[in-house]
Amino acid sequence: MEWAAVATLLRALECRDAVTYAHSLRVADLSTRAARVLGCGQLSSEEVLLAGLLHDIGKLALPDKVLQKVGKLSKSERSEIARHPVISANILSPLPRFDHVRAIILQHHERFDGTGYPDGRRGDEILIESRVMTIADSFDALCDERPYRSPLTREEALGWIESEVGRQFCPIAFQAMEVVLAEMDQPLNGPPLVADGPWSPYYRVAGVPPNESK
Question: How far apart are CA 193 and CA 186, in angstroms?
Fold first, then answer.
């Protein structure tokens, strides 16, 4: 069953890299909220949430010397990290109902101006769900502490992302994320936020299907 597979993959990620695991929960939450702002329906919102939870699952296949490195990555190490969207999509290939989830994940490091990876897609060639997730992923990373830098404040992170709108980031997706962040009154670092109703990442991590979450 798909939910059992999702929960198993997330537990494996948590055991391997707790930082990436917590980041994935936060990205899932932010992305799902933004998808709702954009008017995505229930099925699309669920796919966004799943893609957020699993977008970095491909890092399970990366060597510890890269995944656990303290400090900035070398060029070759960055190339190694850049493989993870493809690996993530491949890990999910046995789950036929996850085809769109896989596509969202595969494109979450594409850039609006076409300079991203793995395929160099640009603009509307990138799924809107992926464009939203790109912002959520970057925003959470900027707000999280790294060994080589201090975390940015929410305002600083949002300001930097705004400066990259039209280059890295989609204007429509950015506007949706602005709405989401304006509605939130909790810090993004720390425990993942609990979204309302059955969309909460906590329910998904537990492997509880939507109709059993209340």
Answer: 8
Looking up tokens 């994320």 gives 177
Task: Name the maximum alpha-carbon separation found in the chain.
Answer: 47
Location of structure tokens 């966004």: 48
**Is the Cα dihedral 122, 123, 128, 131 positive or negative?**
positive
Q: What are the mean pLDDT values of the chain's consecutive 10-residue runs (214 residues total)?
A: 80 90 90 90 83 95 84 86 95 92 97 97 97 97 82 93 98 96 64 41 42 38
- Among 117, 130, 38, smallest CA distance to 82 is for 117
Using alpha carbons, list the distances in angstroms from residue 106 to 16, 120, 167. Answer: 21, 11, 19
Query: All domains of the chain, ordered by start, with CATH?
Result: 2-209 (1.10.3210.10)
d(CA 6, CA 40) in angstroms, rounded, equals 22
